[in-house]
Amino acid sequence: MTHPFLDLPPLSAERFAAIEDRVARLLDTRQTVLVTQGEALLPLEGAIRAAAGPGTVALNVITGPYGQTFGNWLRDAGATVHDLSIPFHTAVTAAQVREAFARHPETDFVSLVHAEAATGNTNPVAAIGEAVREQGALFYLDAVASVGAEPVLPDAWGVDLCVIGAQKAMGGPAGVSAISVSERAWARMAANPRAPRRSYLSLLDWKERWTDAGRTALPHAPAQLEMLALEACLERIESVGPATVMARHRAAALAARAGAVALGGGLEPYVYEERDAAPVATTLRVPPGTVASELVADALRSDPALPLAAGGGALAGEMIRVNHYGPDATPDAVTESLTALGGAMAGRGLAVDPEGARRAAADAWR
Ligand SMILES: *Cc1c(COP(=O)(O)O)cnc(C)c1O
């Protein structure tokens, strides 16, 4: 008997190339798109190690935990790094980026996370891209949490290295990712003697052996199951329509925010301004005297499948995340998450209004 996952015909180079082209269409880009055979940390790290080196002066914008990681890679690659740390309850502005360029005029690399699933904010990449272009710096963007939830447009925004993963708003697999690379970025990598080559991290290897060779023969065995899952999730987004998928995420964020405010009991949106809040996930600040991870554990007891999590690391005490992305970008997932949180809060004697929360979420969804 054949097994549906295991007994598959080989995945052809032609099909791999067609999946890359579909990713390029989703990003509306004419840059080189490489599908990278690993979780998104693979192209995120590969791009930094290829494009940055001892001569690089990087502005590393930190609006969540990933920015910290990028700064570490940049330093490790030998770059001079200027961190621009922004409080997690807000977003960075183009003006703040311009001020940083004024302080460090030799900046030639900018790293930024678009939306942060971990902290719930989203950054205005189009406006920041203008500032980066004026500066003439290379622009590196982590769009893992934004793709599928809001527009990601590397060409229109002047992004040189744009990394996506399918595991958040695309509702796809985690074990495969993609990057779009501009001509400028390829030139920077080619000129970097320390860029990884003959390495799992090497984007240049794939360019030489795959893209420039006409995409007729894969240099390594394709990660077949992940590729099929990526293809299926791209097909699904195309058939529903990317605008519809994004509208669902935006509606979920508005519903979660409005519902949490109406729930009361001292629960507050973690991101102060709605325009800075990410469509992919909504973060909430718990009332004083409560511990976020304990409230989440209680709420999940009623339904372990709810898309609720406590903040990571030091945020576990104060932050709750409603991960309304992918299959959870639905009115039910948001409402049931708020109801379960309301139950956990009521159990601690907090005055909450679950009915009001349901109404507010439903109104906001429309
Ligand atoms: C989820 C996510 C990633 C992928 O990393 P994981 O740690 O595997 O989840 C990268 N960047 C951002 C901004 C993300 O939200």
From TrEMBL:
Does Iron count among this protein's keywords? no
What processes does the entry annotate via GO biological process terms? Answer: glycine biosynthetic process, by transamination of glyoxylate
Q: Which cofactor does it need?
A: pyridoxal 5'-phosphate
Domain spans labelled Aminotransferase class V: 18-301
What are the UniProt keywords, alphabetically? Aminotransferase, Pyridoxal phosphate, Transferase
InterPro entries attached here? Aminotrans_V_dom, PyrdxlP-dep_Trfase, PyrdxlP-dep_Trfase_major, PyrdxlP-dep_Trfase_small, SP_NH2Trfase/AEP_transaminase
Single GO molecular function: L-serine-pyruvate transaminase activity
Is Nucleotidyltransferase one of the keywords UniProt gives this record? no
Residues bound to substrate are 321
Q: What is this protein called?
A: Alanine--glyoxylate aminotransferase family protein
Q: Name the source organism.
A: Streptomyces dangxiongensis
Q: What is the lineage of its organism?
A: Bacteria, Bacillati, Actinomycetota, Actinomycetes, Kitasatosporales
